[in-house]
Design a protein that fits this description.
By secondary structure, this protein is mainly beta. It has 1 helix and 15 strands. It folds into 2 domains: 132 residues, Immunoglobulin-like (Sandwich); 55 residues, no CATH class. The strands form 4 sheets. Strands 1, 3, 4, 6, 7, 8, 12 and 13 form an 8-stranded mixed sheet that branches. A 3-stranded mixed sheet has the order 5-2-9, with no helix packed on it.
């Protein structure tokens, strides 16, 4: 596996993180339904693109150099007339991943990251037109507890937009999901933290 990754056969996706230059033509424009985040698209030729609406991470706080507890993204500063459009070649694209970033009242960065290799949704980009990429940031948690001969079996599914696999992060670290199973009298029979994603 390491040999394959080092071979260069797997190319990283091309990232588009700036609005188009003034006077650009022949492109369609896409805008997100969220303020900060990214989407990963696959075109008809199976090429992968990452379209970002988030500040680039400065080199001095990349994950290997970042102190524990340092937020990944910075809360966006309020500014007038921010251009959130990104230029794409006309065509049909499948959204295969997304990340939506939000900050709580204390300024702590949270994000959800959803993936689905078959595609979360399909968008069509038309030259000279603006296309909104609607991503529902809702989180669906489905939990079932089953009694077995050896004890209790807990099955949990966490999904995002169009049942994509979802992971929740706080300050750049995946959070565990706490659970507690109660009996008919309301007493706790099992509890813990479930790891996923």
């Amino acid at each position: 596996m390491i040999r394959f990754l080092r071979s260069g056969a797997l190319k990283p996706p091309r990232t588009i993180h700036r609005p188009p230059k003034a006077g650009s033509t022949g492109y369609g424009l896409v805008v997100p339904s969220f303020e900060q985040g990214a989407v990963v698209l696959r075109d008809a030729k199976k090429r992968v693109l990452r379209i970002a609406w988030e500040p680039p991470t400065p080199k001095d706080i990349k994950p290997k150099n970042r102190r524990k507890g340092t937020p990944v993204g910075r809360k966006p500063k309020a500014s007038a007339a921010v251009n959130s459009s990104r230029a794409l070649d006309p065509g049909v694209y499948n959204v295969i991943g997304y990340r939506v970033i939000r900050h709580d009242k204390a300024g702590v960065g949270w994000f959800v990251s959803g993936t689905e290799s078959r595609g979360i949704k399909r968008i069509t980009v038309v030259a000279g037109s603006r296309q909104k990429i609607d991503i529902d940031p809702a989180i669906a948690v489905d939990c079932v507890a089953l009694r077995t001969k050896t004890g209790l079996r807990i099955l949990m599914t966490i999904t995002g937009h169009n049942e994509s696999g979802l992971t929740i992060f706080r300050q750049g670290r995946r959070i565990g999901i706490e659970y507690r199973v109660l009996d008919e009298q309301g007493r706790s029979v099992a509890e813990g933290v479930m790891k996923y994603g």
